[in-house]
């Protein structure tokens, strides 16, 4: 048994889906009764069609990326991953562990400590925040994302599996 709800003229909501009155011919209010929709004018039909399209767009959402792990840690995959992260950070290179993304779909990277001419760490305040990255499977491809700005890079050599 479906229940007909009319939030505004020209559009009826049945459950969560918007249906135009012009295309709705019958709705089962009870087992004995049938409701027949009146014919809408062409101007009303166009307005209803626009409202239905807008409602359809709100219902249809882009599939969310699925968190992933590195399936098989290889040298090629590790190199590709470090190059992808470096490009997301817009720097020349970055050093990450070979086990990155093997146990969690997220990693946090800190900037290297500043050192003096002798290689000793310089004491002082670090002003930059750590960066977080996530590994996902999106549309069947392995993707690394910088979480601060949501930019992504598709990984072609790295094999991923669902977390």
From TrEMBL:
Stretch forming the signal peptide: 1-28
What are the UniProt keywords, alphabetically?
Answer: Signal
Start-end of Low complexity biased regions: 38-55
Domain of life, source organism? Bacteria
Q: Where is this region: Disordered?
A: 38-66
Spell out the protein name for this chain.
Uncharacterized protein
């Amino acid at each position: 048994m479906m229940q007909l709800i009319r939030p505004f003229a020209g559009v009826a909501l049945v459950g969560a889906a918007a249906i135009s009155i012009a295309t709705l011919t019958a709705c089962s209010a009870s087992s004995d009764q049938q409701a027949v929709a009146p014919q809408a004018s062409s101007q009303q039909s166009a307005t209803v069609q626009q409202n239905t399209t807008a409602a359809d767009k709100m219902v249809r959402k882009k599939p969310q990326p699925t968190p992933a792990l590195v399936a098989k840690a290889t040298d090629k995959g590790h190199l590709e991953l470090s190059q992808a992260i470096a490009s997301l950070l817009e720097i020349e290179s970055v050093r990450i562990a070979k086990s990155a993304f093997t146990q969690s779909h997220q990693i946090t990277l800190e900037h290297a400590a500043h050192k003096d001419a002798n290689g000793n760490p310089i004491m002082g305040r670090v002003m930059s925040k750590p960066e977080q990255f996530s590994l996902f499977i999106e549309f069947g491809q392995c993707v690394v994302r910088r979480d601060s700005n949501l930019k992504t890079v598709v990984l072609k050599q790295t094999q991923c599996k669902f977390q």
